[in-house]
Design brief:
The protein is of the alpha/beta class and 278 residues long. It has two domains: 176 residues, NAD(P)-binding Rossmann-like Domain (Rossmann fold), CATH 3.40.50.720; 94 residues, ProC C-terminal domain-like (ProC C-terminal domain-like fold, Orthogonal Bundle). Helix content is 51%, strand content 13%. The chain contains twelve helices and eight strands. Strands 3-2-1-4-5-6-7-8 form an eight-stranded mixed beta sheet, with helices on both faces. Keywords: Amino-acid biosynthesis, Cytoplasm, NADP, Oxidoreductase, Proline biosynthesis. It is an enzyme of class 1 (oxidoreductase).
């Protein structure tokens, strides 16, 4: 079915459902409610574990007993389950789907063509958020199939904009996205830990060293985002001739710091390709 024949999702009154009620689904739902994109009364999910039910109910989301109830009650359905069960879930909800419903997958490593085949549904968007969604600072990338309307993409951009920033690219780039933003937070956590350890080695109390390292990384990222300057220029702005910063940069360059980070991204992207179903 072509995008020009799709029934538009009602922008001012649509309902949102989550299949899977884990931490990522919770982060998205909380962000959507907190930002005012949707009221909690128009969001639902299903789960049998009391602690997960309580997590969603604590901010007003309706928690149902079964996935089929979520699908029946929702215009937009976000699949947020583990990759190993997504095929079973897609087959389970297949009889309930019509082209009036928009499906969104945040399932890691599972391609749109497989999701479409299993669910028998063509109106699909795949989104790859990362774990900073939990604090409203996600880097999310989305890819649309041809059968999804432009309005669908705008709706999903608004939903995921509630938990951070959103980009759009072809799905063929998603393994590289994994290497940068999917795995990238772990690289930065290592860098923060190492900076803090360096501070301790230089004589700082542990708590102060960790606070300084964390805030410095946050501030540096904000400078890149907000200054409009290339990170190389910002680096040059800090590194005065014969000063402390250039001495530290010299050590990083001798150790191959930039090459190591580049290799980490490429290795993660390669592993993503290996893990993805063909």
């Amino acid at each position: 079915m072509g995008s020009n024949t799709l029934v538009p999702i009602p922008a001012d009154s649509y309902t949102l459902g989550f299949i899977g009620a884990g931490k990522m689904a919770e982060s998205i739902a909380r962000g959507v409610v907190k930002s005012g994109v949707l009221p909690a009364s128009r969001i639902r999910t299903a789960h049998h574990r009391p602690e997960r039910r309580s997590a969603f109910e604590s901010f007003g989301v309706t928690v149902l007993d079964h996935n089929h109830q979520v699908v029946e009650a929702s215009d937009v359905v976000i699949l947020s389950v583990k990759p190993q069960v997504v095929k079973d879930v897609a087959l389970e909800i297949k009889p309930l789907l019509s082209e009036k419903k928009l499906l969104v997958s945040v399932v890691a490593g599972v391609k749109l063509k497989d999701l479409q085949e299993w669910s028998g549904h063509t109106r699909f968007i795949r989104v790859m958020p990362n774990t900073p969604a939990a604090v409203g600072e996600a880097a999310s990338v989305m890819s649309l199939v041809a059968a999804a309307a432009k309005d669908d993409g705008e709706l999903v951009s608004k939903l995921f904009g509630a938990i951070g920033k959103v980009w759009q690219c072809d799905e063929k780039h998603f393994d590289a996205v994994t290497g940068v933003s999917g795995s990238g937070p772990a690289y930065i956590y290592l860098a923060i830990e190492a900076l803090a350890d360096g501070g301790v080695a230089a004589g700082l109390p542990r708590e102060l060293a960790l606070g300084l390292a964390s805030q410095t990384v946050l501030g540096a990222a904000s400078m890149v985002i907000n200054s409009g300057k290339h990170p190389g220029q910002l680096k040059d702005d800090v590194a005065s001739p014969g000063g402390t910063t250039i001495a530290g940069i010299h050590e990083l360059e001798k150790a191959g710091f930039r090459g190591i980070l580049m290799n980490a991204v490429v290795a993660a992207a390669k592993r993503g390709r290996e893990l993805s179903p063909s």
